[in-house]
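hey so i finally got around to running the thing on that chain from the lab meeting. sorry it took forever, my laptop kept dying and i had to restart like 3 times. anyway pasting the input first so we r on the same page abt which one it is
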Amino acid sequence: MPKINKRACLMGGAAVGAVNGLLGGGGGMLAVPILQRAGLCERAAHATAIAVIAPASLISGLVYLFMGLVPLSLLTPVALGVFFGGILGAKLLNTLPLKAISLLFELIMLTAGVRLLLP
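ok and heres what got predicted. didnt touch it at all, straight out
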């Protein structure tokens, strides 16, 4: 693995956290290419992105919760879905071919981008 520029990682991490907190998600999508540029393989970049986004999402979520922006009636069912979906996704990351992971990631990013452009 090449020497990692810690300052670049810190700046990239700050951008990831800001995007995640501001937009309520998307930081992981930004983290993956940053981590790949830092020298991580694709699987490690995806896994590390989740690991670094989890605490950022928790902190942002708590801020939103205390600000009264979280509909409490939806919190438990959505959290349960995210929990079990996360377990499934982590297992799939370790078993799917890298090409499938890359294609799925690209399709999700493309779909999200197109959706944002449409009214």
